[in-house]
Design brief:
The protein has about 110 residues and is α+β, with helices and mostly antiparallel strands. Helix content is about 30%, strand content about 40%. It has a single domain (about 5-105), classed as Alpha-Beta Plaits (2-Layer Sandwich), CATH 3.30.70. A hairpin with a 2-residue loop joins strand 2 (about 35-45) and strand 3 (about 50-65).
Length: about 110
């Protein structure tokens, strides 16, 4: 079984599917993630003192925890938002073969 703490899921959102697909392709091409899932969502949030309600695309990015800083930089450089959501969640378990696939697919640290 893969070691706990080795893998992570990074979450971000984009304003639409087009910008999310472009960002996902950059991330995967640079081998910073093995997989990026794109999910349409509706977000309610406060921005500049106002309550906003917008359609967005949620991105689940499967990677190695050690690649977080580089992945975060790539997201910021290519993200359409001034302040993108970038959250890292540890993956503390999962199907060992799937976790190994992540490890084999992303670039070596």
């Amino acid at each position: 079984m893969a070691d706990n703490g080795v893998y992570a899921m990074v979450i971000t959102t984009c304003a639409n599917i087009k910008s999310a697909k472009l960002l996902a392709e950059i991330i995967v091409q640079e081998r910073l993630a093995a997989c990026v899932q794109l999910i349409p969502i509706e977000s309610v949030y406060v921005w500049d003192g106002k309550v906003c309600n917008e359609n967005e695309t949620l991105m689940f990015i499967k990677t190695k925890a050690v690649l977080f800083d580089k992945l975060s930089s790539v997201i910021r450089e290519n993200h359409p938002y001034d302040l993108p959501e970038i959250i890292r969640l540890p993956i503390d378990g999962g199907l060992p073969e799937y976790l190994n696939w992540i490890g084999e697919t992303v670039q070596a640290p």
